[in-house]
Design goal:
By secondary structure, the chain is mostly helical. It contains two helices and no strands. The protein has a domain of 66 residues. It is rod-shaped, with a radius of gyration of 37 Å.
């Protein structure tokens, strides 16, 4: 199959082409290795950086708490007024 009866010139030409293909593949491998190394360096740089957690002062927490109490009080007041959106229908049907 295939190689029986090939002339020495054809065999030598095949070997040259094969060597060239191998050389090209090694060059491509070097390029890919450089790209992988760059990506790994970039990834390692982002993995090691801890996120900063913002700290909220006591005064800020009190302010947020006050605003949320106002928000929920207003929301309860709206639902007590009989808002259609605040009270789901009992039978599962939508009200007009």
């Amino acid at each position: 199959m295939g190689w029986v009866g090939n002339s020495p010139a054809q065999s030598q030409e095949f070997q040259v082409n094969l060597n060239e293909a191998i050389r090209n593949l090694y060059e491509e491998k070097k390029r890919i290795d450089r790209l992988i190394a760059a990506i790994e360096r970039r990834n390692a740089a982002t993995l090691g950086v801890p996120r900063k957690r913002r700290k909220m002062s006591a005064a800020r927490r009190l302010e947020v708490s006050r605003r949320m109490r106002e928000y929920w009080a207003a929301r309860r007041a709206r639902s007590e007024e009989g808002s259609v959106l605040a009270v789901p229908p009992a039978s599962g049907e939508l009200r007009p």
